[in-house]
Design brief:
It is built from eight helices and no strands. 15% of the residues are buried.
Length: 192
């Protein structure tokens, strides 16, 4: 009996440490392909369900607004719908290869999976490489534990301002191009 209890406790301790690991690039790269595929499938299913729910709620709310107020909300609703549509044609394999490619770069490994998915979603929706590189650098700075907090906060403020000055779908690359990609797979439309 004692041996069985000890075995159960040991298994629970091992499992809890695996579940407690941060969901970042190191965690992602260490996961088996079957797990990654299941994670991506769950993510896409959850996004689809959430998008349908938000669409119904916004349509109901907008219908209750006066006509002149509806026109003011049109750009916001269009942006929300475009964000939702960004994964409309993405396959599980697309998302999986984008995440693998993103985390293949060692400097992206500290970025949490939720933020990596933001970058990947933007890439799949056609956001330009300069904006993606700016967002990726912002996330790298945010999770750079080697940088003292004061310096990190100053750098984050500057990077946030730089990214805010950019337009995700309209900016041309800086002269000489972008010095690095965020980690797009070879042949991705945004790299051409």
């Amino acid at each position: 009996m004692t041996r069985t209890a000890l075995t159960v406790v040991l298994v629970l301790l091992i499992a809890s440490s695996a579940w407690a690991a941060p969901r970042d690039g190191a965690w992602w790269m260490g996961a088996p392909e079957s797990f990654k595929l299941g994670y991506v499938a769950g993510y896409l299913a959850g996004r689809e369900e959430q998008a349908a729910k938000w669409s119904r709620l916004t349509d109901d709310a907008v219908a209750q607004l006066p006509e002149d107020a509806r026109a003011q909300f049109a750009p916001v609703l269009d942006a929300l719908r475009a964000d939702t549509a960004s994964l409309e044609n993405a396959t599980y394999g697309d998302l999986l290869s984008q995440l693998d490619s993103f985390y293949h770069l060692e400097r992206n490994r500290a970025i949490p999976l939720e933020q990596a998915l933001t970058i990947v979603r933007q890439a799949l929706s056609g956001v330009d490489q300069p904006y993606l590189a700016c967002q990726t650098e912002y996330f790298r700075l945010a999770h750079d534990a080697a940088l003292p907090m004061k310096e990190r906060l100053e750098a984050l403020g500057k990077k946030a301002a730089q990214c805010a000055d950019m337009t995700p779908h309209k900016d041309a690359p800086p002269e000489g191009g972008v010095p690095e990609t965020y980690g797009l797979p070879e042949g991705h439309p945004s790299t051409k």
